[in-house]
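User: Teach me something about this protein's shape.
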Amino acid sequence: MFGGMITAEVGSMLPETGGQYIYYKHMYGDFIAFLFGWSGFIVIFVGKFYILEYIGVKALAIFMMFIITLVNVRSVKGGAAIQVVFTVVKLLALAVLVFGIFFSGKGNVQNFYSTYDNVHYSTWDIVVGFVAAASGALAAYDGWNVLGFVSGEIKNPQKNISKGLLIGISICIVTYLLTTQAYLYMLPVNEMKNAPLVASDAFGKAFGIAGGGFVALLVMVSTFGGVNGNILPCARVTFAMSEEKNFFPLFGKVSKFKTPANALWLQFIWSTVLVMTGSFDALFDMFVFTQWIFYGFLGIGIFILRKKMKDVERPYKVWGYPYVPLVFIAFSAFYFVITMCNEVSNYLSGKAQIINSVFGLVLIATGIPVYWLFKKKYTHVNRK
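Assistant: First, the predicted structure itself:
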């Protein structure tokens, strides 16, 4: 919610297509903005809709991304319509799941306050465990920042961006909390931690095989809507970079359908490469880690904009400023440090073969020579 408040203020005062790329450009200049766009293209945005691992399912995932990309290439309204329909269906299905579990009477309220675990953990183990568990929760909540990516295509963005962000995040928080409490009501913690699919196990325990089938259907609906929800706005960052000659200009052109078609197809091609060659766990961890690096920059940036653009009208201002942004920045830094320490420790002890956070930083760093290459090339062209 704190991140949404920050984005609401910045997005309502800078309603341009490109979202965080535009925000960072005003906050820090072209270099940091480019690194965000580059890291987004390499791992962040694709990590949001990277789906499953086995070859048959990968092929299905690629086909689904192709269909959704095609729809978004041909019509902004078509992509938006898909999003509305699948969001409504998903929320209704989650309501059925939550109330179905609670009213089944087969759960146990003691699960809410008893862990059934006599093992005692050190303070460091608790902190590391919290951060590791938080990664999944942070990914589940993620998406609150993408509304700004399509600011240039929103009616009355000065008012609707802040309103959409705050309402949307509130709905997500309530839905997430109710859903996780429903799972906990049905499955004790020691049973939940060994469950490969918590939702399926919880609903299946309440309603048998039919319950597991319902959850499978819900997952498909959620996945389809999630993929569309990120394909729709994320290509706008590549588009904005290319339009400003910070990337190949070809991808900054608008098609006859008035959509960033070239950027969308580039995103699809790169997503296909990562889906076919990557590992979900590795990509997921890098996605969350690199995303929160830039969220930290977003929190710092609001202080910069308050000084650099103090006379610009702000239809919405962060409640609790400066404390809310400071808490957000502190959490981003905390998450960064603990994740790095934990992953380095796991690597040194042989528990992990790669340090995903370091690999994510390396991927971001690969954008540095690319930035200077484009800067040199198009600065030279513009002088001519």
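Now, about its shape. Residues 46-52 have pLDDT under 50 and may be disordered. The CA atoms of residues 16 and 152 lie 5 Å apart. If you'd like, I can walk through any region in more detail.
User: That's plenty for now, thanks!
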